[in-house]
């Protein structure tokens, strides 16, 4: 009964470019007594417009929105700038290693892989509301309060060495000569490292290496 519900429910907005997924999540969360789903959207532009008109407590957003003007880190940061008090929960069907840390660094409060039970989404929402400075994740049905590992930790020693030399301004040809390895081998290590770090192109790689170098000089 409605009278049995909490007086102040958590207002939630959902963004996923696959309407069936968004509607399915909305249906589940709607039946939680302490939640109120105020919007389910497939358009990132309309989603942001709605948040300006109808403030919410929580935004649940898909990390990958390939047909939208923004997604991933860019969209999470945009949400954080425009709505600093908003709880942002990211969910993704991609590899956790490629998106969890990125979501954390962008300012999300929580992360849930799409393969997890919807009950995990509800748990992450409640925990994030009660402790917004923590970062909550869900793995195999269990909730965790922890900082995700840096993507760098998954790089091999060879990949780290290639990126270090690129950061020094060396080309693939120069690195090949310096390390006495074929250009094909150097290019393969570079490509694999970029994939692990979820870097789409050389510009993204350059920005990543710049940030990494700046951090290392402060240590």
TrEMBL record:
GO molecular function: DNA binding
Domain Response regulatory: 11-129
A family per Pfam: GerE
HTH luxR-type domain ranges (all copies): 148-213
Modified sites of kind 4-aspartylphosphate: 62
PROSITE patterns assigned: HTH_LUXR_1, HTH_LUXR_2, RESPONSE_REGULATORY
Keywords from the UniProt entry: DNA-binding, Phosphoprotein
Alphabetical GO biological process terms: phosphorelay signal transduction system; regulation of DNA-templated transcription
InterPro entries assigned to the protein according to its UniProt record, in alphabetical order: CheY-like_superfamily (IPR011006), NreC/VraR/RcsB-like_REC (IPR058245), Sig_transdc_resp-reg_C-effctor (IPR016032), Sig_transdc_resp-reg_receiver (IPR001789), Tscrpt_reg_LuxR_C (IPR000792), WalR-like (IPR039420), WH-like_DNA-bd_sf (IPR036388)
Cross-referenced PANTHER family: TRANSCRIPTIONAL REGULATORY PROTEIN RCSB, TWO-COMPONENT RESPONSE REGULATOR
Name of the protein described by the UniProt record: DNA-binding response regulator
Taxonomic source organism: Achromobacter aloeverae
Lineage: Bacteria, Pseudomonadati, Pseudomonadota, Betaproteobacteria, Burkholderiales
């Amino acid at each position: 009964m409605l009278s049995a519900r909490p007086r102040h429910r958590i207002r939630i907005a959902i963004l996923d470019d696959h309407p069936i997924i968004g509607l399915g999540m909305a249906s589940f969360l709607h039946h939680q007594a302490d939640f109120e789903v105020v919007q389910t959207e497939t358009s990132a532009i309309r989603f942001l417009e709605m948040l300006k008109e109808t403030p919410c407590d929580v935004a649940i957003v898909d990390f990958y929105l390939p047909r939208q003007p923004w997604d991933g880190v860019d969209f999470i940061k945009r949400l954080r700038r425009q709505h600093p008090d908003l709880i942002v929960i990211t969910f993704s069907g991609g590899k956790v290693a490629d998106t969890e840390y990125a979501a954390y660094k962008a300012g999300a409060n929580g992360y849930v892989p799409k393969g997890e039970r919807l009950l995990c989404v509800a748990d992450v929402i409640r925990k994030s509301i009660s402790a917004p400075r923590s970062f909550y994740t869900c793995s195999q049905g269990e909730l965790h309060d922890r900082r995700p590992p840096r993507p760098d930790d998954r790089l091999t020693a060879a990949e780290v060495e290639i990126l270090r030399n690129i950061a020094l301004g060396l080309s693939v040809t120069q690195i090949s000569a310096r390390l006495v390895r074929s250009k094909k081998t150097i290019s393969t290590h570079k490509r694999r490292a970029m994939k692990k770090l979820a870097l789409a192109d050389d510009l993204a790689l350059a920005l990543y290496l710049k940030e990494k170098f700046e951090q290392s000089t402060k240590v």
